[in-house]
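Next up, sample data:
>
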Amino acid sequence: MKNKNLIGIILSSGLFLFAFIINGNLSLYFNLSGLLIVFGGTIAAVLVGFKVDQLGNVLRVLIAAYRKPITKETEIINILIDLSIRSRIEGILTLQSLENETTILFLRRALGCLVDGYKIEQIRDILNTEMYFFRLRREDSERVIRAIADYLPAFGMMGSVVGLIAMLGGIGDTAIILQAIPVALTSTLYGLIFSTFFFLPFAATIKERTNHELLLQKIIMEGVIAISSEVNPVILKTKLESFLTPSERETKLVSYAKLKERFNIEREQKIDEENSGGVKINPQEDKIL
């Protein structure tokens, strides 16, 4: 999936640049004054609006979103089922040796609560609190990136206004007008490109990763609570697979023949027909008006 995304980025970026080249020389779209207005103004606004430590956290979250591989739900489910089997055979306290081997921080915290003997209500409360503040921190990072995406077009328009003022001030002087026109036009272009091509996708990536990690955390919480309740591993597997899409589940659906056999559907139909003299009653006609 990562390679497919990279190929898609290269192809789409190539088409994007090719569209510029078709209409003329690519150097026509480069203007240093426009870049300085857009990026200088945006950086100043970001430093005024947010703390440096907060910006550092956003950068770390963004780098991790693109560099760290995505853990699949099936992997987490298999880990939890394995832990469930071990806890039933060797006891819950044996999971203490596995606590430091797990690479997922939330799973390690959940196992720590389990090994320390917390009650189910306490485990659920602690993990729900962890999930709540994790979501708040990620939403805060997404908010910062979306704010930057809003600043860029605004300063692009500001650069266009600067260029227009320079044009009006140079009426009668062709050289000044020719220098001001690129600033007025490219500033808006830069603001729109960097906002929609980079920062809005960055925010969408963080939101998508956050939703995925919250789903994994929900699976871990339900799995650890089930292990604490000594739920049968087969039942646990069926429960956790409810978080997956139908195409990802390994459990096969029960056939209609087994359903009929289990609930005695055919035998009940025969008894109803015998009691009604062999006449099938329409349920719609049997309603009381």
Observations:
- Residues 34-244 form one domain.
- The chain has a mean pLDDT of 80.
- The radius of gyration is 31 Å.
